[in-house]
Amino acid sequence: MNLFYLVAFLSIFFSLLVIFSKNPVHSVLYLIVTFFTFTIHYILLNAQFLAIVNFIVYMGAIMVLFLFVLMLLNLNEETEPLKPTLLKVMGVVAGMCLLVTLAGSLKALSVSEPVVLQNANLGLVKNLGKVLFNQFLLPFEISSLLLLSAMVGAVLLAKKEA
Amino acid sequence: MENITQSIQGIPLNHYILLSSIIFAIGVMGVLIRRNAIVIFMSVELMLNAVNLLLTAFSAYRGDAAGQVFVFFIMALAAAEVAVGLAIIVMVYRNTNSADINVLNKLKW
Q1: Given CB atoms, is B9 within the 8 Å cutoff of chain A?
Q2: B78 chain-A contacts, CB cut-off 8 A
Q3: Domain of A28: which CATH number?
């Protein structure tokens, strides 16, 4: 039980570092740590398939993509554009307003039953694969089309003479 | 595996909702206070991940596998979005020589 609160604290701490660190490369590295804490959350919820996919897709593929683009563009602390302090404070206040609204509506709802894993095998590959290929076969095929078009679009956009 | 999943037994669902709300709000703040296009993009990723975690928690709570399948689809969508978005940022950088979103203020009208 305490493990959850420790990991939750780490997620919040590192996601704060992502948005407040001056150097974009440090932001990406903190984001990788944040995604690792999310992987631990998935393991705690016994969603093992999602934990592995999160580990490979987010921490592997997406973050390498971010890091490569950041290093190719040669962005660092000196070239980092900054907003005026007033706008920053207003942004933080607006974010806090959103948080207060969400937390307040949550308090008004007042459902606080504990999470109990009713089906321990829920997040395993065998179980998810059955659901994915029976109930969600059409969305699965359409998502392959989405990935194909994204790939074509990315190559087309990043080409020199588009 | 038993003793690992034992550790979440007894956590109120509210705490998962609160954690996801906090991380979503941090993502919103990041979009509002940064001017670097790539950092804004990373904040969007944070928001997507907060929603993923919440969907997984609800799925475990209800004992329904559909939530975790949705998370899988969101991850596929996020991969596509990152590929296209980073290509657009590279193109913007090539044309304006910076990743500052303020140089794109001509798009305003």
Answers
A1: yes
A2: 58, 62
A3: 1.20.120.1200
What pTM was estimated for this model as a whole? 0.89
Predicted local distance difference test score (pLDDT) of residue A2: 80
Mutate to test the interface with B, among A14, A50, A125, A138 (most CBs of B within 10 A): A50
Query: Is residue B39 over pLDDT 70?
Result: yes
Q: Which of B36, B69, B71 sits opposite A81 (nearest CB)?
A: B36
Looking at CA atoms only, how far is residue B106 from chain A in angstroms?
18
Q: Which element (helix H / strand E) includes A146?
A: helix A137-158
In a domain, B12, yes or no: no
**CB neighbourhood size of A14 (10 A):** 18
pLDDT score for B95: 82
What is the domain extent for residue B67? Answer: 35-100
Pair of tokens at residue A28: 């990406």
pLDDT confidence band for B104 (50 / 70 / 90): confident
pLDDT tens figures, A89-147: 998 999 999 999 988 888 887 666 777 777 777 778 888 888 889 999 999 999 999 99
Domain count, chain A: 2
Gap between the Cα atoms of A143 and A95, Å rounded: 32
SS3 assignment, position B77: helix
β-bridge mates for residue B100, sequence order: B36
Residue position matching structure tokens 């095929």? A141
| Chain A CB contacts of B49 below 8 Å | 34-35, 38, 58
Side chain identity at residue B8, one-letter code: I
B21 and A111 in contact by Cβ < 8 A?
A: no
